[in-house]
Write a structure and sequence with these properties.
about 270 residues, alpha/beta, about 20% strand
Length: about 270
Amino acid sequence: MKPIAEIQFADYVYPAFDQLVNEAAKWRYREGATGGNVGGLVVRMPCGGVGHGALWVAYRRLKQTVGADCVPSYHSQSPEALFTHVPGLRVVMPRSPAQAKGLLLAAIASNDPVIFMEPKVLYRAAVEQVPLDAYELPLEQAEVVKEGKDVTVISYGHPLYTCSSAIAAAEKDFDISIELIDLRSLYPWDRERVLASVRKTGRAVVVHESMTNAGVGAEVAATIQQGAFLTLEAPVQRVAGWSTHMGLIYERFNIPDVTRIYDAIKKSIEF
């Protein structure tokens, strides 16, 4: 049997940070040539925005319990970047049910511990035919969801759907072709596929829901700057959550929307 744990919300994973970072992530490193590993250890956790007020349920419960206007920042955090700093961990975030099944089975088969983050808003929004047979999707391999030649948009998880809407509008308004890449695996991530796309298009827009500072987009942007600088026609654009806590009823103003992504594409092609 292999251990598959679930944290009810990613917001509650922090007490387990020591075990994941100092124990699970370092297990194979400590074992050296013995071949010991914690393969199959997968920690699933719903993450990201819920599509409405971020804290409303928790707020009502605390209001009833303590009788005060307590507003803790729970239930809508996206802490994936905290784990992408840790060698020995794999961090994965699927965009759809079929992707989730294939990536989850691959995570279970891996010899590394895997942080498997599931955008909770997709639980009720994503509808897709999922094959009944077992199958695996390769970890560390990004997917080109849509091919294009003028701009590369890189994202993962739920924002990919927002990106698709912004791309459709931008292609119609500016008569351009935009490539969309789903990272799928956030650490380790598919640098070569991203760089190959940016070298082709000359422009890059990175989109994610978690906050901008020290996020996954910062690593992607730095890698593009280092590996595709001479082919860039414009600075790399980042569209991400603001560097603040998720609000009680203003969640939609924090995470990237179609307008912000559209504007980033426009800025890139007009540079």
